[in-house]
Amino acid sequence: MSRSESPEAGTTAGVVRGRRESGLDVFRGIPYAQPPVGEARFAAPRPVERWEGVREATVFGPPPPQEPFGPGAPAVAPWSLPTGDDWLTVNVWTPEADPAARRPVMVWIYGGAYKLGATDDPTYDGGRLARDGNLVVVTLNYRVGVEGFLRIEGAPANRGLLDQVAALEWVRDNITAFGGDPDQVTVFGESAGAGSVAALLAMPRARGLFRRAIAQSVPGTYFSDALARDIGAAVAGELGLRATVADLAGVDPRKLPEAGAALGGRMREFLPRWGTVALTASPYSPVVDGDVLPVTPWTALAEGAARDVDLIVGHNRDEFRLFLMMGGLLGKVDDQLASAALAAFGPAPDAGQAYRAEFPDASAEHLFELVQSDWLFRMPSLHLADAQTAGGGRAYLYELTWSAPVHGGALGACHALDVPLVFGPQGGGLGSMLIGPEPTPETEQLSAYVRSAWTAFARTGDPGWPAYDPENRLTRLLDTEPTVTAYPEESSRRLWERHTFDEALPLLTA
């Protein structure tokens, strides 16, 4: 093979060899930390050991251990190949592995409720972003579920976030060899990935590792240390064990997710102790432990922690409709279910009455969906823009209003629809589920616009629409014809105006 077909790059741990694919140099499965097994189990990520010769980097690293995606599903996503313990790897798409190129770098952090995810989902292929934007795209695997986020005695909190910091340090130390500029790094992520981005903005350990950030649908769930420890005890208790390194380190990493899945089936039993967390789909979230994550992102940003980082933040109009479909509730929500959701997730004791007054024509299903969209994603994202500007930083706000083509448009602008638009519809994985097997010309047009805005931001700090301010609240609507308008969800904003996301979710009873 010629050199151009088998590009090589030198890293601090040794030389890697990738492949030339569709006009890009592509490297997969490069370790950024040691496998977190054996003595390294539940520890902070440790530096990679050097290797001799040239390491082949053409295959994705194995996904971290995780729960099944759905009932009867395999323990990893169907496109994943679980071979080995080298979960902590990065992948790089670059126009050319030329140290002199110094191109902007975009680093992707996947979502998945902090319990799922891997970079080998075809949706996360960085090729179109790298080609269209003439920049370097990096994706990374990080520990999820018990391995990454369960509060365990004797282990650092937020190990998944520490993995992300280690990957960003790898980018800082190595990306020049791949044609990237370590001083022009943008982190971007969706859902739990956006929650991770928000956490990184607040973490002293991550300071200086990136210049810009894009947070797509930020979840509002950050646990207090007391709540996280109580949840940890419940997960370990499913195996008759304590939530300690001594008890859990001897359990096969691929067996531990079963404990989280078992607890997930009965989380409602813990409603008096855990509050609304018990009504969600995941017992995992970042922990405000006072060390790795000192305070919530809203508090940190309002205090100026990220004033030197440009931020895009936004959400989708109909976030929760995806979960309605996944739960088999489309067309089945009655007034009783809607009232229960309004009482549980609304911003005040009279939330049911307030929502019905603001949305007098809304059906029970729409109210059920709306309050959960607001609580989990929409208002946390809006408030993050407010916090960033309050702290002296710059933010750009967006809302996706374009409807998913599948199921006759019934999903609307649902959760995760933005992801295949950002990477480009590519077939397989999450993209096929929401876009369908063949993207329409309209889909391709909107995707091209979103990619151009995201890559322009990575290059210049300006996505092409006015910055957010609390007076005008100008927002980019992402649709077939993108426009700029005042924040379109004003009714929800007013309902949540006095709510604060500054406090971590508490343990209600000891």
Automatic annotation (TrEMBL):
Keyword terms: Hydrolase
EC number(s) reported in the record: 3.1.1.-
Coiled-coil intervals: none
Ranges for domain Carboxylesterase type B: 7-489
Enzyme class, spelled out: hydrolase
Domain of life of the source: Bacteria
Region described as Disordered: 1-20
Pfam families to which the protein is assigned, alphabetical: COesterase
Protein family membership: Belongs to the type-B carboxylesterase/lipase family.
PANTHER family: CARBOXYLESTERASE
Protein name according to UniProt: Carboxylic ester hydrolase
